[in-house]
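Lecture notes, part 5. Sequence design as translation. It can be helpful to think of inverse folding as translation between two languages: the language of shapes and the language of residues. The source text, in structure tokens, appears below.
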């Protein structure tokens, strides 16, 4: 057997050639033929007494192809490992005409995409912003309004009054179609709200959507489900075909509400409830601020790391790996996104190797247990631990271990970003919750 690697001019593409002679595969083929002759059940012959010559005639070509394919797979993998080749995906076979009936020696070629080495930015060379969010009165009031509505008693009266919500279909006047389903909060409208007083199911009400929300595209997008671009372009009259009216009596701030929101007896006074609400809201904003900073880190790393990819090979491999799901045209259209994803994967792997980052089984189980507790809004107690661990173990075994791998990858990704956070300059940026939402809307 002879294996050669021919790198192309860009050093990112290569052709791996494997030359086989009869001596490389003959003994394996003969051994498999003898094995078949012992197991084959052919009319006219007793089990185990089928002549090898007959087996060769009936199955010889198939056995030859199978053995050569197995030999090729092992040889190519071995060569890649022995020569420490960093390849993209897997080798792609180069089409060729092989005559298995008459040839004794064979030559097979595989196209490889080679991944280059690269350097990570120096420590403290990258700067990112980290928002320090403060809770403003407007956000606090909105939070309590949401709680009052979420846990209040909702009815469906025959006719709307000021402040009710109207469920219906919204469309631009004159346009075809049934429109988009939404819940219109008349208490949030800056104008035109009086047109909805007295509205009943099946009524069709015409109003100026832009005027109703004082031209606030963000509010229009939030309440209608439009994209920010669609909301910016809103002009002229719209119609709402009312399907039902909803009225909510605000929930009272008592122990029943405290238990519904945070669990039985977690808080037992209005003061504790206020503190817990503030703590929970701030935890959510802190998490969002961290997520935003992490996205900045990823973007800045991609901007500051130079990685040349085997572009044409990558496109071919994407077609092959997503056969039937992605066309060459779709891959061409979204190539930049695929390239960014690959580059970030390479950066992430380099950080893992350079810092010997690892994820233990206990970390995976603990994370899963916390997720289970979070779903039921519960806190860990000694009595619960054994049963929750059992649920976690069962979940991680499901999907043939797919859930386990997903948790492993998620924890490893967090460790990579945590490692990078310690190597970038972080500028704290104080901002109110309302400004933070507006800045990152759409």
């Amino acid at each position: 057997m002879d294996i050669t690697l021919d790198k192309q001019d860009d050093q990112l593409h290569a052709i791996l050639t494997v030359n086989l002679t009869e001596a490389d595969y003959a003994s394996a083929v003969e051994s498999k033929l003898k094995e078949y002759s012992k197991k084959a059940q052919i009319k006219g012959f007793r089990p185990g007494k089928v002549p090898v010559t007959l087996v060769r005639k009936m199955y010889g070509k198939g056995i030859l192809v199978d053995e050569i394919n197995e030999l090729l797979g092992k040889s190519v993998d071995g060569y890649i490992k022995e020569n420490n080749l960093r390849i993209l995906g897997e080798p792609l076979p180069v089409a060729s005409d092989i005559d298995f009936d008459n040839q004794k020696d064979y030559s097979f070629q595989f196209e490889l995409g080679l991944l280059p080495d690269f350097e990570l930015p120096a420590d403290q060379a990258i700067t990112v912003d980290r928002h320090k969010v403060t809770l403003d009165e407007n956000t606090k009031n909105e939070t309590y309004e949401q709680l009052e509505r979420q846990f209040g008693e909702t009815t469906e009266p025959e006719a709307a009054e000021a402040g009710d919500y109207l469920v219906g279909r919204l469309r631009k006047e004159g346009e075809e179609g049934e429109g988009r389903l939404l819940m219109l909060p008349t208490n949030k409208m800056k104008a035109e709200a009086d047109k909805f007083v007295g509205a009943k199911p099946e009524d069709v009400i015409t109003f100026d959507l832009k005027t109703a929300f004082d031209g606030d595209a963000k509010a229009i997008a939030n309440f209608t489900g439009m994209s920010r671009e669609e909301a910016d372009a809103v002009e002229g009259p719209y119609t709402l075909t009312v399907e039902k009216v909803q009225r909510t009596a605000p929930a009272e701030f008592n122990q029943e509400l405290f238990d519904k929101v945070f669990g039985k007896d977690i808080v037992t006074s209005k003061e504790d409830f206020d503190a817990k609400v503030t703590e929970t809201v701030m935890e959510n904003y802190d998490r969002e601020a961290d997520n935003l900073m992490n996205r900045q880190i990823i973007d800045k790393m991609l901007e500051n790391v130079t990685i040349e990819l085997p572009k044409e090979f990558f496109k071919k491999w994407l077609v092959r790996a997503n056969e039937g799901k992605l066309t060459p045209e779709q891959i061409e259209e979204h190539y930049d996104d695929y390239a960014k994803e690959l580059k970030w994967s390479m950066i992430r792997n380099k950080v893992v190797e350079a810092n010997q980052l690892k994820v233990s089984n206990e970390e995976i189980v603990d994370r899963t247990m916390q997720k289970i507790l979070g779903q039921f809004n519960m806190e860990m107690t000694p009595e619960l631990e054994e049963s929750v661990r059992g649920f976690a173990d069962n979940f991680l075994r499901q999907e043939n271990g797919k859930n386990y791998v997903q948790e492993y990858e998620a924890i490893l990704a967090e460790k990579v970003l945590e490692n990078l956070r310690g190597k970038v300059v972080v500028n704290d940026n104080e901002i109110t919750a309302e400004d933070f939402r507006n800045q990152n809307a759409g």
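The translated text above is only one of many valid answers, since several sequences can fold into similar shapes. Residues 270-304 form the longest helix (35 residues).
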